[in-house]
Amino acid sequence: MRYGPLVFLAAFFALAVSWFGMVYTPQIQLGGAVQETNSVISSDLYPSERPGLARQGLEVYRENGCFYCHSQQVSQKGTLVDLFLTDAGKTNMAVANALNEEHVGTGTFSGPGIAAGLPKAIARNLSMERAQSLAAILKNNGAKSEMHLVPIGADIERGWGVRRTVAEDFIADATVMPGSQRVGPDLANIGARSPDLNWQLVHLYNPKLVTADSPMPPYPFLFEEKKIGSHPSPDALRPVGKFAPRAGYEIVPKPEARALANYLVSLRADTPLYEAPLTPPPPPKAATNAPAATNAPAAK
Amino acid sequence: MNSPAKQPVAGAPRDTELKDPTVPIWLIVVLFLLLFWGAVYFDDHGGWFEKQVYTPYVSADQLKDFQVGGGPNPFEQGRVIYSKTCFACHGANGMGQPGNVPPLVGSDWVNEPQPGRMIRIVLNGLQGTGLTIHGQPFNTGTAMVPWKSFSDEDIAAVITFVRGNPDFKNHAPPVTPEQVKAIRDKIEGTHPGSFSPAEIEAVNPAD
Amino acid sequence: MTATSTTSSASGSISAAEIDASCRLPLFQLFVGAVIWAAVASVFGLLASLRFHDPNLLSHYSWLTYGRVLPIATNAWIYGFCMPAGLGVALWIIARLSETRVAQPFLIAVGAKLWNLGVLIGLVSILAGDNTGFETLEFPRFGVVFLFLGYLVIGYWMLVTLHNRKEATVGPTQWFLLAALFWFPWIYFTANYLLLAHTPVRGVVQPIIAWWYAANLKLVWFGLVGLAVIFHFVQRMMKRRLYSRNLAALTFWSIVLFASWSGIPSTAPVPAWLPSISTVATVLTAITALAVVVNVYQTCGRDCSKSEDPAAGKFIAFGTMAFVVAWLMNVLNALPGVNAVTNLTWYTVAQSQLNVFGFFAMTMFGAMYYIVPRVTGVEWPSLKSVKIHYWLAVAGIILIVVPLAIGGFVEGFNWQNVKMTNVQVAGSALNFVRVSTIGELLILLGNLILLGNLIRLSIRYSQTHFVPVYKEATTELKPAEGKP
Fold it and tell me: Which residue from A32, A140, A211, C11 has the highest number of Cβ atoms inside 10 Å of its Cβ?
């Protein structure tokens, strides 16, 4: 029996199946994704195109292999719910009793107390099922409630993001580099953590300027040390101590450094999306006399 | 065993004439156990190939539950309300039913900058003949029921969704609950019943 | 350890020596190129590892930054050493098993040259900054073209050699090699075309394809070729047939069906079904490791150490054990509980190193140590060097894999601990990485010893084969004695 062609067919079949499942199907599902008004309030599209300098920065990121040490994939272990009471309705006593019967919270609710200081959180870190049943109970008693989503996970607690990254976050990028290792922190949301361009530039010039025992190598070749002209450049870095340049010289970022810093500052993944819902924090209010009692939802 | 006729070249036994002991039974058992585990694992965590399900969510239905819209997210909230309520008549694609239910796709009353007409229709319903959209008449008298029992936030959310949904080819600005409340108060006393197409036509949208 | 050359009694069949002679030119090109690239890769690997001792090292040069040195090391290993060595050994095995001369050895040598040119172009491009951004696929378009052409040339003539075989049925070794021969062009073309061509795929599909390709290369292709070499040499050294063809068939199917679906990390920004399928597929590759253990152990019989060629056999034995450990490490990494800790840490690097170097490279070293004397007719100039290379390589890979694996776990647990800052967590793994630098150094020394041995062998070969021929061709003709 001639096994040669059979072996070839077997290999062909297996590879075809793998190709179909891992190359073709993802392309069908995700490859045609376009920017959508998926979940943002206005008719802005998400994700927005990176501005030109940031797009060049992506190329610098790729050329210097930043993705070998930095990932851009925030993970999420689960989503919990905070239940906010927005309207105690007409029968405060009934609402309070219902909540007490459900053993919600640590203390007990009282009729008059429950209507004070609305909107306020009456239970935190619930599972969705529990939150839904409590919301139904409140509704039955004439009260109104609101659920705020709280994504949880090690990455989120570490501050690397407010939700997990999803495919939609990367549609606008020419080369998508989610990385495979974390020698350094995750960068998916670095634009929200460190939005200061100057900080990024100083950190790129020599990370030890910012963090004393950083294992990240410095990138001095992205900068140039030039003689100070008639007056110092406005965007010169000012490192001190052993990192300071020679007398009469200043450190000025090259276009690559500027582009890379702009790219880093543009990296954000904090918009609520259908696939990764979250309740964004309310925008900071202007200073008022009233004390901020609770996590008030954004003004309607 | 080595058959004398086929002397292997340079001492390499030909592996085409192997003995064929069966695969050890424990390995088969392990294989099937792993396959079973794999099937259960995928069932629990795979989201069944849904494009929008990412860990930690496990199914499209569960993901829908999490679209609570708490906070400044009325578009998504409106999408959920539409998918539960309006789609029954207006269709999941917003095209309505020809002759019976008007389309929301590219509709003038949906897309005009001031939402007065649309808020009135949603609040109090629309009934009567004489409605023509894109040259198509809707004269069967099928009524749109009033939805004033919904809260201002919910009505604002669903109108925001319909007005801004690119799938419906609509790009109109969103609507706030205050706007809904203002019109609700205005028409509560003066016009408690359904509107007719002629009345809506006569309305000043900025009102 | 002399080169055996039995002449078969039946007419029409050729001797092993003739087959080996036909392999000489292509194997020379493939092996010498591979060993040179291995040395280059080890140098860059050491350079990369040294950065963790002092980040400021050589940081003023853009072309020596870590992000450029690391891909050069990995790509030089995979495309410079592993694949040509694998192809060379596969060619020899196919020729021997087919009992026929290699078809068109000169063209295969040309293919090898094309491949090496592609690798050179690719590596220089990465140095210059033209990195595509996809791991294992960093070579830009113009390098890829040469690699692909070279492979097609080599692969086609290997296929012709297989086609010319004396016996129609093919055994497990040949199944594995045939499947691998065909596998690489498909995955390489698909991945490079979809990622680098004029209108590449967009969005997160890019890394999905890159991960798919990397798994298919490192697990499927390396697994198929490496196991074929192991199966063949175990039989050859033990002078015994492979224990079970059914187990070999199970191994084959589990590799091509399961390992080809692995590769997507669990935290990837892709819908849940992709990492789930990858997890399930990776866990199922445990079957491959177990099947190989049973098959090889039973073939060796009681005593695994009595082999025809102990120096080369040791490499093959180590390669087999490394295969099992590496694939089981991969399975461990895929288990959801463990993955929460080891994902994106040094553990995955350790597993990859063990698979590529510990399993595949060591197996190829052993095969080369066996094949080269038989093909050239010249013994290795220094047998002691072979032993030293073995121990250096073993010590090196253990010093890389064990600290990095442990460091990966430590780092993973620390990432979960919110009280530790980013720098503290990175620092907790640093000492482990610093130990692995010693491993890189030992591997470099081993490769240099191999290179030296190979160069000396080549010189000796040219002295024994070329120089007398040359002398004979250029001596003045003496008048025939006793005749006018």
Answer: A211
The number of domains in chain B is 2
Both tokens assigned to B52: 């929008």
**Do C184 and C220 touch, CB atoms closer than 8 A?**
no
Residue B129 to chain A, least CA–CA distance (Å): 33
CATH class of segment(s) A78-152: alpha beta
Residue of chain B whose Cα is closest to the Cα of A38: B76
Q: How many CB atoms lie within 10 A of CB C272?
A: 25
SS3 A249: strand
Whole-model pTM: value is 0.83
Please tell me the distance from the alpha carbon of residue C48 to that of residue C45, in angstroms, as a whole number: 5
Residue A242's alpha-carbon distances to A239, A246, C55, in angstroms, are 8, 10, 15
Residue A138, judged by CB atoms within 10 A of its CB (0-12, 13-18, 19+), counts as buried
With an 8 Å Cβ cutoff, are A40 and B164 in contact?
Answer: no
* C-alpha distance across the termini of chain A, in Å: 77
Task: State the CATH number of the domain containing residue B95.
Answer: 1.10.760.10
Q: Is the pLDDT of residue A45 over 70?
A: no
Which chains contact A through at least 3 pairs of Cβ atoms less than 8 Å apart?
B, C
Reported as a single tens digit per residue, the pLDDT across C107-160 is 999 999 999 999 999 999 999 989 999 999 999 998 999 999 999 999 999 999
pLDDT in tens, C430-479: 999 999 999 999 999 999 999 999 999 999 998 888 777 778 777 777 66
ipTM confidence: 0.89
The verdict on domain A52-75+180-265 having CATH code 3.30.420.40 is: no
Domain that holds residue B45: 19-63
In a domain, B9, yes or no: no
Length of chain C: 484
